[in-house]
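TICKET: design request
STATUS: open
ATTACHED STRUCTURE:
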């Protein structure tokens, strides 16, 4: 891989010439010269300053996408040329998906002795960052992301439901958004697809999280569901996460999209598709 592209990717990560020079073991002027060389070759600006902050341009983002794919393919090529058996399959999934939707695929894949894998469970933002860095072969995510940057395949659609205590007035009903006013809400951390979807639905109805009396962040589903079951608040999750829990009830929210996508995502123009097909046996 062109050393200038490696330097470019490091600068994309740090957005700081001094920190990049430390990462790639070059002087700061040498880093600047490599970036200028790329800009001259492609006849475009890759970075620009806004005030004192460095920002990547739209053309820089295009080159970043290309360079990330090239880096992934280079690692694959070296592995093939060395005739080494492909290392452990590296996949990522959001918590909503990793806790339920992949069980059948995981069991089927690991029934073959020659297969092994490493599963990273994190929020959508973190998983896409790892994918961009070439640290994962593919990810399965829900929520909002820039589909145009990646290869995307729909895995399934899943209902998004409200959950409450069994004795809560919402249990088993459909409620207008105004009924949520004054409720205590449990949500996932920022960057979670589950949270992004809920906040988008609220925004579409003209509201935000200030509608609620109290908003508590919990990154794990188990304590979140326990708090809801204890009548301490409500939440919104995918149905597959809550169906097996007999201690909580479900409800729906009027005028919202009930089903959302679970998508398989990998870098464009890479050989990762063969790992997607092998795992999902397409």
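STATUS: resolved
RESOLUTION: sequence designed for all positions
ATTACHED SEQUENCE:
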């Amino acid at each position: 891989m062109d050393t200038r592209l490696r330097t470019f990717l490091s600068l994309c990560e740090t957005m700081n010439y001094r920190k990049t020079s430390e990462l790639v073991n070059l002087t700061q002027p040498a880093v600047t010269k490599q970036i200028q060389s790329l800009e001259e070759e492609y006849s475009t600006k890759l970075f620009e300053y806004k005030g004192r902050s460095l920002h990547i341009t739209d053309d820089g983002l295009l080159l970043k996408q290309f360079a990330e794919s090239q880096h992934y393919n280079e690692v694959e090529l070296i592995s093939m040329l060395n005739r080494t058996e492909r290392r452990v399959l590296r996949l990522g999934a959001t918590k909503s998906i990793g806790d339920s939707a992949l069980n059948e695929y995981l069991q089927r894949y690991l029934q073959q002795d020659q297969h092994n894998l490493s599963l990273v469970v994190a929020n959508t933002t973190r998983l896409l960052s790892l994918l961009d860095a070439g640290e994962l072969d593919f990810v399965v995510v829900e929520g909002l992301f820039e589909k145009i940057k990646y290869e995307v395949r729909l895995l399934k659609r899943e209902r998004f439901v409200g959950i409450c205590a069994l004795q809560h007035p919402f249990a088993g009903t459909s409620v207008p958004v105004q009924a949520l006013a004054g409720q205590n809400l449990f949500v996932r951390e920022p960057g979670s697809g589950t949270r992004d979807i809920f906040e988008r639905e609220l925004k579409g109805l003209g509201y935000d999280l200030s509608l609620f009396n109290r908003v508590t962040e919990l990154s794990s589903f188990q304590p979140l569901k326990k708090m809801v079951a204890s009548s301490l608040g409500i939440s919104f999750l995918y149905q597959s996460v809550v169906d097996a829990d007999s201690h909580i009830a479900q409800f729906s929210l009027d005028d919202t999209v009930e089903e959302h996508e679970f998508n398989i995502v990998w870098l464009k123009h890479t050989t990762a598709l063969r790992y997607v097909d092998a795992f999902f046996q397409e």
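CLOSING REMARK: DSSP finds eleven helices and twelve strands in the chain. Residues 180 and 236 are 12 Å apart (CA to CA).
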